Amino acid sequence: MPILATGKYQRKESGFTLLELLLVVVILAVLVTAGVVLTSVNSQATLNKQQGQLFVKELSLLCEKALFENQNLAVEFSQQGRQQLIYNGIDWQPLSSEDFQASQGLDLLWRISLQGMEQPLTETYNQSPHIICYSNGQFSAFDIKISASEKDSEAVYHVASIGPSQMTQGWLND
């Protein structure tokens, strides 16, 4: 250690003070927290969009099947999920398991509106269709909003009919 003219030792400062280290830790904690929040919002939005796009594909395939097989087919929603139905001339029956596997566990909030009126989802299936694919390839009017919860207004994915054989999909706020 060098000695000063006053006879005292000169200390060489090296490293960081405790205050500087604490400040860096606080800044990193804030950044990580913000990143986690942004990631969870984006992942929820991605899940909503994926479910909406999957439903559009399922409905398109169902309507093609109705056209090719000259049968009326439908989709019914419940709190358990959604299932496809076939009209046998008297009433609606679930498609056999070989034809279609019912989608289970709608962990997202699906709000279905038919002719401008929101349809409450029952706890179980009751063979009452929400969307019908007619044997001519057209489908009934519908409007579906997919979100994580009632309070989620940021990431609402929207799927709706815009004619007897066309659908639109996208973010509700767009």
How many β-strand runs? 10
Count up the helices: 1
Radius of gyration: 29 Å
User: Roughly what is the average pLDDT, rounded to an integer?
Assistant: 81
Coarse structural class:
alpha+beta
Order of helices and strands: HEEEEEEEEEE
Q: What name does CATH use for the topology?
A: minor pseudopilin epsh fold
The fraction of residues assigned to DSSP E strands is 25-35%
Q: What's the CATH H-level homologous superfamily?
A: minor pseudopilin epsh domain
Q: Tell me, what is the CATH class?
A: Alpha Beta
The poorly predicted ranges are: none
The coarse silhouette is rod-shaped
What characterizes the major β-sheet? 5 strands, antiparallel
Helical content (DSSP H or I, runs of 4+): 25-40%
Specify the CATH architecture: 3-Layer(bab) Sandwich
Total individual domains: 1
